[in-house]
Amino acid sequence: MSPATGASNPDWTDPDCPVARTLDLVGDRWSLLVIRDAMDGARTFTEFQRRTGIARNILTDRLRKLVAHGLLGQRAAPSGRRQEYVLTDAGRDLFPVILTLRQWGERHAFAPGESHSTLVDQNGVPVPEIAPTSADGALLGVDTTHVQKIR
């Protein structure tokens, strides 16, 4: 884990809040788009740049940050001439976050009938809506949960 993730880091927006810490690490749009594209098979700087249209200097910064925080790793490309980026376990753990953002966007960011991409499983079937549930199977939402501070 990077030193930037320690409790004493003065750069945390809200040191006690997991949501705020997560946003401090991946809350800008370029970082999440790089993670999205890594999940979709992008591995090289050129692939990330082509898919996102991000400026080279910003992409360099985001890749460096994602590697430093342990969301992406680097390894030699099969050709041996370049480095490629791969998701770490921490990066893979962002899959439900990306999926939830995608599903929210499908519901709220497109006009009715407007075309958009769809995430499908290995059989070509659209991925079902994510619905958080409690231990007893009841649906959870903003009216049925609250934050409990632990000290």
- CATH architectural group of the domain at 10-91: Orthogonal Bundle
Structural class: mainly alpha
Which radius of gyration do the C-alpha atoms yield?
Answer: 18 Å
Strand content: 5-15%
Give, in spatial order, the strands making up the sheet with the most strands. Answer: 1-2
How many individual helices?
A: 6
Report the sheet with the most strands, covering strand number, pairing sense and barrel closure. 2 strands, antiparallel
The arrangement of helices and strands along the chain is HHHHEEHH
Question: Shape, please?
Answer: globular
Beginning-to-end CA distance, first to last residue: 22 Å
- Would you state the CATH class of the domain at 10-91? Mainly Alpha
The chain-level mean pLDDT equals: 91
Beta strand count: 2
Helix residue percentage: 25-40%
- The unreliable regions are none
CATH topology of the domain at 10-91: Arc Repressor Mutant, subunit A
Q: So, the CATH homologous superfamily of the domain at 10-91?
A: Winged helix-like DNA-binding domain superfamily/Winged helix DNA-binding domain
Domain HTH hxlR-type: 17-113
Protein name: Transcriptional regulator, HxlR family
GO molecular function, one term: DNA binding
Organism: Streptoalloteichus hindustanus
